[in-house]
Each structure stands twice: as structure tokens, then as C-alpha cells.
Write a structure and sequence with these properties.
The chain is mainly alpha-helical. It contains 6 helices and 2 strands. 69% of the residues lie in helices and 7% in strands. The mean pLDDT is 83.
Length: 154
């Protein structure tokens, strides 16, 4: 595996992972006081409690763990997926490739690893915010990685 290809996907993975969390309402959000000043940060919707709970930790550690997993998923995308899945054009790679990659992580992460580690039911495959969040993750990751190739096609 090419180390440079791995490194190219880390930041796009982090960005796409954070937007995934924001989409499903599980990101870190600022808490404002009555005067409109930021008084702290809080975690949304319980999903990060579940992620943190996989290792016996709280939602903040769940947030950090999810971002690390997103960085790894981004690195694997650029080092493995992009090299082995070429669908013809950058736009098709973004639309179809991003869909495929998001579905892979929804099945592997959200429906196998997560439930197996946390004691839930494996392969429930429910169409919920996690499903759509993983699709958004795949598309956004593909777009960030492929944007230069997309611009050169125009």
C-alpha cells in the first residue's frame, strides 16, 4: 500500500466524518447562553454515546473515535478504493463510487462492527439517519478526493 495515497485521504475523511456527524445531529455543537455568548459545547443525539460505549467511554471519546475511524476510512478510500474502482470519469466516480463506498461503511461499520462491539443486533440494515449519513460521507469523501480530476475534465 502506498503511504502517500494513504495520507491523501486522511483530511478528506476527517471532513466527511465530521459532516456525517453534523448531518445526523451527533456532532459537537456550541451551547449559547441567554446573551448569545458561547458557554460550552455539547454532544448531540446519543449516537456518540454508543460509539464511545464500544470502548467503555463517554460521548466526547466517541466523537474522537468516530473522527479517527473517518480518517482511516478516508485513507483506505484513497489507497485502496480509488486505485481499484475506476468507473470512467471523475463525476461517475464521485456519484457511484461515493455511493458504493458509503454503503460499504454503513454495512461494515454501522451494521456489523458497531452492533457487534456494543452488544446490539448485527445486520439490521434499517434505513435511518445512519444510512443517509454514510451515503453523504461516501459522496463527500469522493468529491473532496476527486475534485481536482473533476475540474480538469471540464
Amino acid at each position: 500500500m502506498n503511504n502517500e495515497a494513504l495520507r491523501k485521504g486522511i483530511v478528506p475523511g476527517i471532513i466527511a466524518g465530521y459532516i456525517f456527524l453534523a448531518f445526523i445531529g451527533a456532532g459537537m455543537v456550541p451551547v449559547m447562553d441567554a446573551e448569545g455568548a458561547m458557554s460550552g459545547m455539547e454532544m448531540g443525539n446519543g449516537m456518540l454515546d454508543m460509539v464511545g460505549g464500544m470502548i467503555g467511554a463517554d460521548a466526547f471519546i466517541g466523537f474522537i473515535l468516530h473522527i479517527i475511524i473517518s480518517a482511516i476510512a478516508g485513507a483506505l478510500y484513497t489507497a485502496v478504493f480509488v486505485d481499484n474502482v475506476n468507473l470512467g470519469s471523475a463525476l461517475v466516480n464521485i456519484v457511484v463510487g461515493g455511493l458504493i463506498y458509503g454503503l460499504i461503511w454503513w454495512i461494515v461499520g454501522g451494521n456489523i462492527i458497531g452492533p457487534a462491539v456494543s452488544g446490539g443486533d448485527v445486520l439490521q440494515l434499517s434505513i435511518d439517519s445512519s444510512f443517509f449519513g454514510h451515503i453523504i460521507f461516501g459522496h463527500l469523501l469522493a468529491f473532496i478526493v476527486m475534485r481536482d480530476a473533476l475540474m480538469s475534465e471540464e
